[in-house]
Design brief:
About 25% of the residues lie in helices and about 40% in strands. By secondary structure, it is an alpha+beta fold.
Length: about 80
């Protein structure tokens, strides 16, 4: 069971937003949400550890076509959780 949850704020290329959301949501443990501002996207990342979450943020999320920048804004780790 995942015990790390990271909330990520991403700056995105507006023209790629629908395709980008589809690409991200096909990745295991990732969901997206609107943050109410054009050019920004919220991402929730569930991972087994903080190291795995960091690796996935730097290599999978930041590598997705349309992500201009991404940074963690919330992290929960330790005890198991349900989302």
């Amino acid at each position: 069971m995942s015990n790390t949850l990271v909330g990520i704020l991403a700056r995105v290329a507006e023209s790629s937003n629908p395709a980008l959301r589809t690409e991200l949501e096909q990745m295991p443990g990732i969901s997206t949400f609107e943050v109410g501002e054009e050019g920004k996207l919220g991402i929730l990342l569930r991972a087994e550890s903080t190291d795995q979450a960091h690796h996935r943020l730097r290599h999978e999320i930041e590598g997705a076509n349309g992500i201009l920048a991404a940074w963690p804004v919330y992290t929960h780790f330790g005890e198991e959780f349900a989302v």
